[in-house]
Amino acid sequence: MSTALIIVDIQNDYFPNGKMELSNPEKAAANAAKVLELFRQNNKDNIFHVQHIAASPELGFFLPNTEGAELHESVLPLEHENLIVKNFPNSFLKTELESKLKEKGVTKVVVVGMMTHMCIDATVRAAVDLGFETTLVEDACATRELSYQDQVVPAEQVHNAFVSALKSMYANVTTTEDFLATAN
Q: pLDDT below 50 — which residues of the chain?
């Protein structure tokens, strides 16, 4: 069985001074970089970088041809690594991701990236629906605080709520440390 790494939307707009700053993106990116390094050593042909490009300027971030839409320096793809450009939260929707994974005989995926409550959630659920055994490295993901009516939900609670929901029926959820320890 072949395993692939999917790095979702670790892009400059999510970092300090970006147009959609997240809570602790540097920590999540550093952990994603550790997972990426492991794949580069052991499974270098199955690395997929996903980059969100806004289909409409109303999104307000990830605008085409901007520095904010560029992948963050911590996880820049190497020349031979796959780059998937998407316009929706789900990394599989209207992209070549599924076909490229199947071409390579991939049956398992490991997901890291940003934002936990949006693109990570959508991508993990889609991966499982498409038949991939899915692992989420939760501390290699980041999100932000959200609000509904007059209630503000802190980023940590948003992250934990989405991760716990994914763990219940969709993904094997682990930490970077545990993932690296079991991979060696």
A: none
